[in-house]
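Check this.
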Amino acid sequence: MRAFLTLLILVIINITVAYAWEQPPANVIISKIVFQKPEQNRSFIGALYYDRISHVSSEVSGLVKKMNVRTGDRVNKGVPLLHLDTELLEKEILIHKNRIKQAVLHINHSKKNYQRMDSLYKKGGISEKNYDDARFVYQDALLKKISAQTILEKLLIQKRKSVIYAPFDGIILEKKVDSGDWVHQGKPLSSIGSVNDLFIKVPVAETLIKFVSPGDQVAVTINANNKKLIGTVDKLSPIADAKTKNVFIIIKIPMLTRVAQNMSAMVFISTGAGQKLAMIPRDALFKFQGNDFVYTVKEKKAVRLPITIVDYSGHMVGADNAHFKEGMPVIVEGNERLQPGQSVIIAGEK
């Protein structure tokens, strides 16, 4: 009897443990496979570059007091890149402010004297020369004030120009001066590449440009970090290489960090019509032990299937695996933590 009770307890424990380890059902969103005959893609190697580069220069000469950036820094439009020393300039500004005050005093004094002379001259009390001299002194005082104000405005502009600002959001590609350097008017100080104008230049055979049009979306992989993204064909270069006859396709890509001009990128470009493939959303893909897989649903359970990608087309991939069938569901949301055989509840379809 004791042995029977012991056996019963062990059975109950095993059942409880098994139940405890069973994964709860997961809510998922699915998409159904469709078969299409997409354009055949082929990979090409291109180079990243900034289409918009500003070689920032100074409009005034001066000593670099402070350099705020280093090569590789990300900067926003309007941030100060460099300050020139303005100590002597400040003294000049103060001098001309005082000269304006002196001119105002001189104007007030000469105006009163001129008004007196004008009254006396009308009454015949002074000579015409004395009247002309008083008028000349008054008008000269007015001109001296205008001259001092003009010089002051010029000095204030020069002071504003002593701070160099970033012309747009960008990356510092090159820094050519540092604190303590003397810069001349027009001397390049730094080069900035616009982060909103990042492109890839890809050489392809002239026979392939008939398959490419501006606005086409293409799959791109940045080789340095294996980052995958979608680029847009911007234009075709108007000049082909004289020797190879290759034509450059210019592809705009989204803003990226941790990239450098002339980095390599793999671009998948159409080279004509291909075989009929199972078209699957990229959101369905996940990695397992370095290989690509998707989850389908069979008898309300998640089933993991390998996928061999042979084509990239925007946000879809084309696969030629025999186990994919027309209308087969693949999980596009909720597949991050799924386990094979786990129960699933289909909450929607894309």
Remarks:
- Confidence is low (pLDDT under 50) at residues 3-21.
